[in-house]
Amino acid sequence: MKGFVLYSTYRIIGDSPYVFLFGRLEKGESFAAVAPFKPYFYIKEADLKRAREVEELEIEKTGLKTFNGDKVVRIFTQKPSDVPEYRQMLESNGIVCYEADIRFAQRFLIDNDIKGCVDIDGEQEYQDNLLVFKNPSFKPASFFPKLKVLSLDIETRQDAGEVYAISLAADSFENTFINTKKKIKNAVCCKSEEEVLEKFIDAVREFDPDIITGWNLIDFDLKVLQDRMREYGMELALGRGNARCKLRIEKDFMKESKADAEGRLIIDAMQLLKGAFIRLEDYRLETAARTFTGEGKLVKFTSKGNEIDEMFVKNPQLLADYNLQDARLVIKIIEKSNALSLAIERSLLTGMQIDRVSASIASLDSLYIREARKRGLVCPSMSYAEKETMVKGAFVMEPKPGIYENVAVLDFKSLYPSIITTFNIDPSSFSEKCAKGMVKSPNGACFKNEDGILPSIIHKLWASREEARKRKDELARYAIKILMNSFYGAMASPNSRFFNMAIANAITSFAREIIQNTAVEIRKRGYEVLYSDTDSCFVVTKAKNREEAEEIGRKLAIQINEFYKSYVKKQFKRDSFLDMQFDKCFLKFLMPKLRKTEVGAKKRYAGLVIKEGKEKIDITGLEFVRGDWTELAKKFQYELLDRLFHDKQLLPFIADFVQKLEKGEFDSRLVYRKTARKNIDEYTKTTPPHIKAARKLPKVESNIIEYVMTEDGPEPMGFVSHKIDYEHYLKKQLKPIADAILCFMGQTFEDAAKGVKQKNLGDF
Q1: DSSP line for 313-369
Q2: DSSP state of 60
Q3: Rounded Cα distance, 419 and 515, in Å
Q4: Which of 194, 533, 667, 697 is least enclosed by beta carbons within 10 angstroms?
Q5: CATH class of 2-140
Q6: How many of the other CB atoms lie within 10 Å of CB of 157?
């Protein structure tokens, strides 16, 4: 039977370890598979004699080798917890251990080549509505699972000392349990808080979800439920088989709280969106719901705690409806955003559990160790190393500031993965010494001239991405793109078993050389490169119209690719996988100056493009796309750019905008939203405005601080007691944005107030 592995763990039964895999079968049933498995790791065969002097060992000879070609033997232990103890003993005696840090259950999945989906065959029986396979055989399988997701939301007394109501929502199921004697619709009325909690646990058990989710689920809902249940001698038994849910609550804003319920996944929907790289103005439920569903919360509060308490007494029907709506919204957000589907795709690609797919280092491990084993190689154990030097980053050309027309943008598609495959940059191929025939990178690192493990993984992913393109599966293509782009970062991290500064710098040194050489080749063909950034070149085509500019861009991309095919073959005796493509054409393009200088600002520009037959303003790095600028600044900049790109008057618009600001017409757009990067009381050397505002709050409940600037300084939203400082917004928000454009016309922000006649675009 085909099944999707959702959760893996192990138990010791009769002094022997057994791996437990939980999941959902393709036909819909939940399952558990139980199999015996022995923990192990490797040492060099040459170290075996010394190792036996340290400890009595159970060994097995293998045909495997290290990256340097040393033969290894397998060391078995009795329990998984023995592995780190053996490693510590051996390494303290100078004996290197290999693959001694891999999680026991993950080791089982890797050895059986299970990546999410598995074909299970063996003896089976039902236990508590769970189909249990005992010591079955496992084969890799492929299908996209349909998982049961349950959203949870609670309402409590203002001090969280009593649970008023609990709502559950799923695609085909919803219910609300509320502590009230009144009869209300679409809810189960309970005679006590204890009964609410009991019925909630029973409902979860009956629905049998694979994933339990919610908004701020762990830090609030589950923490409160755990505390209240303990008052009645109950356990938060959310796992399969009534297993207790274990919480690890982090008080530090910088760390993420965790919940573990055996057999199921507990995933905060807010974190799921962040893991899918979905950016929102803020991560409140209301904001996410409006963005993806067009719906919002049922009630807008001015003093939520007091109003919930009052609602519980006077209008429990509204409280139940409000509670259920919040649970429903989370399910709809997950569906509309595709965040969970993306996480499943990433799980199928890497073999990582859904709640760990964002762990890029572990994802690389999962793929790399499998491929290494097929090649008869073992990998080093992870051993944290200090990063003595920083990776030298990508090349960014000094921009040529100005306003341009018909600018073609050329991009290297997946530049870092392409470099890895083109030049065989791979941990198993790396050599400290450069022998004849090896690939030598610009930073001096050397690699065997063959197809290594990492390039092989990337080739397979490229093939999968092409298959996804043919079946028009954009989600799978995006998942593959995320994964491939994470490989460089994993190798550049001291937390990775493959951490090597020489390898990381080999990638970036090739990237710098390639983007610089590309600019040279474009100039040889008669075109000006006004900017290049990591993997892109911005080319002034001097074309008369968009069609001509696009044709020039496509022609240049072909010529650059032909150049690299010849260059790589001649210099390295390898095939080039570098792929430059024409990306887009800016009809009008602004490259601003770095503030208070005459040089261009790197990674900051805006332009007018045509996408799907419609005009669109693309903005990179400017205030409009930065979260630490106000909505006032964003509105002002966008409208200013729109007027610039359509040859409209700027100074009258600026003067009118300033007048409206001073009249209070934009007061709702003056809010700053900034994130505290550490606890509020840890800011001692300097106190930024958002920290000053935070310290005026009666209680800091989030690391995102919202405040406005008043005549008495920064004041937090909800606690503003002084007049707005409009002069601050003029000088700090509007003036820098206006001057970045007006400087090219010989004008300033102050000219708008003076009524200076604006020059036309053709005058500069």
Answers
A1: HH-HHHHHHHHHHHHHHHHHHHHHHTHHHHHHHHHHHH---GGGTT-HHHHHHHHHH
A2: E
A3: 12
A4: 667
A5: alpha beta
A6: 15
Alpha helices, DSSP H only, in 683-734? Answer: 689-694, 726-729
CB-based contact 166:179 (threshold 8 Å)? no
Tokens in use for 620? 């990179």
What is the pLDDT at residue 385?
65
Return the percent helix, strand and coil in the chain, to nearest 5.
40, 25, 35
Cα 105 from Cα 247, distance rounded (Å): 21
- What span, in angstroms and rounded, lies between the C-alpha atoms of 165 and 325? 12
- Label residue 613 by pLDDT band (50, 70, 90): confident
Strand, helix or coil at 576? coil
* Residue closest to 528 by CA, chosen among 400, 667, 420: 400
**CATH class of residue range 149-337:** alpha beta
Question: What is the pLDDT confidence band of residue 390, given thresholds at 50, 70 and 90?
Answer: low
Tell me which of 3.40.630.20, 3.90.1600.10, 3.60.15.10, 3.10.180.10 is the CATH number of domain 389-605.
3.90.1600.10
Q: Residue 455: is its pLDDT beyond 60?
A: yes
Reported confidence tier of residue 303, pLDDT bands at 50, 70, 90: confident
Collapsed DSSP state (helix, strand, coil) of residue 268: strand
Q: What is the pLDDT of residues 182-224, one digit of tens each?
A: 999 999 999 999 999 999 999 999 999 999 999 999 999 999 9
Average pLDDT of the chain to the nearest whole number: 92
List Cα–Cα distances, 386 to 283, 383, 486, 497, 499, in angstroms.
Answer: 34, 10, 21, 13, 10
In this model, does residue 757 exceed pLDDT 90?
no
